[in-house]
């Protein structure tokens, strides 16, 4: 039964990482990189300071964080990168409190809450790691094996001669 639970944990944690990574990688590869100039102009119009520079940084965070989640390597750092991106994107682009129109306010509130939920998933990865089916998991298992194989030595005590 424990073996089945371990397999399920590995599968579910992999699926969670892939699901979270998909939205970020699709955003970078399907939108921000191919539409770089238009995206930078949109960011500038939304009040993002140094929009072109910020877009380079956003793409870097998206790619590094997304790939980190896919392979499960340095997952906590990658999830943190994505959380930083998500916080900035949510603040600048889903500022529902700025809208007077009820329909626009509702749409932006939904987007804000969606990002809040994604952020919760990223926080869970930061707190609990990538799971057993990951590079991080493999490194942790290997480290445990090495530590358990290490000989335990007791410190030598030297007796002082009685004078």
Secondary-structure blueprint of this entry?
Elements: H1 2-32, H2 36-45, H3 51-71, H4 75-93, H5 102-128, H6 135-149
Helix pairs in contact: 1-3, 2-3, 3-4, 4-5
How would you characterize the overall build of this protein?
The mean pLDDT is 93. The chain has 163 residues and is an all-alpha fold. 20% of the residues are buried. The protein contains six helices and no strands. It is elongated.
Run of helices and strands: HHHHHH
Biggest sheet: strands, sense, closure? none
Strand fraction band? under 5%
Instruction: Report the principal-axis shape.
Output: elongated
Number of domains: 1
Low-confidence stretches: none
Alpha carbon gap, first and last residue: 64 Å
Would you kindly provide a brief summary of this structure?
This protein is mainly alpha-helical and 163 residues long. The chain is 75% helix and 0% strand. Helix 1 packs antiparallel against helix 3, helix 2 crosses helix 3 (51-71) and helix 4 runs antiparallel to helix 5.
